[in-house]
Amino acid sequence: MEIPPTLITDDVEEARAFTAAQARGVVYKSLRGAPASGGSIYTIPVTADDITDDVAHTAHQFQARVPKRADVRVTQVGARLFAVRIDSTSAAAANDFRADYDNLTYTAIDTATDTADSLRALTASFGLVFAAHDFVIDADTGRWVYLETNANGQWAWLSCVADEIASALADELNGDNQQ
User: What is the CATH T-level fold of the domain 68-173, as seen in this structure?
Assistant: First the structure.
């Protein structure tokens, strides 16, 4: 799988150097869930000048920006994969689709064999039965670029495959994990 350069660090100078070295820019991604005050921490673009000494207080994730045509969420239950293309023309969703759910469209799509094989190998290496894998479709190349795997990723909002995922989870829990 194609993976953008990614850095997890609490070193301010390392973060600034990484950010300055990425030709297409960098996004900052929170390593934790929602803040205690509620709301969400969305993926945002950053420059080396945006990185303050506060980075030294805890680990932060920086990832080379991939201009996207669309997002893809692949929900995996056992060996079964449910891929959904997520499209939006919303400026709010340009960096993180979660910022504007009201302006998203979902289309069930197939996962290429080599990507499917890689995802199954990845989850097997971690001993996971369930995972939600996030990709973007590179606007320049049309290729899927792997961003991350969530061991507890959400899926019920993916209405075009939600019933199939629920059935696959029930099958898995019942020990009937046939594809």
Answer: D-amino Acid Aminotransferase; Chain A, domain 1 (3.30.470)
Residue 127 has pLDDT above 90, yes or no: yes
pTM for the predicted model, two decimal places: 0.89
pLDDT of the residue at 94:
86
Kind plus residue range of the DSSP H or E element containing 14? helix 12-21
Residue 73 β-bridge partners: 84, 134
Rounded Cα–Cα distance for residues 45 and 71 (Å): 16
**Average pLDDT of the chain, as a whole number:** 91
In angstroms, what CA-CA distances link 176 with 79, 152, 168, 172? Answer: 12, 21, 9, 6
Q: How far is CA 84 from CA 31, 88, 140, 147, in A?
A: 24, 13, 20, 15
Q: In a 3-state reduction of DSSP, which class is residue 85?
A: strand
For residue 34, pLDDT beyond 60: no
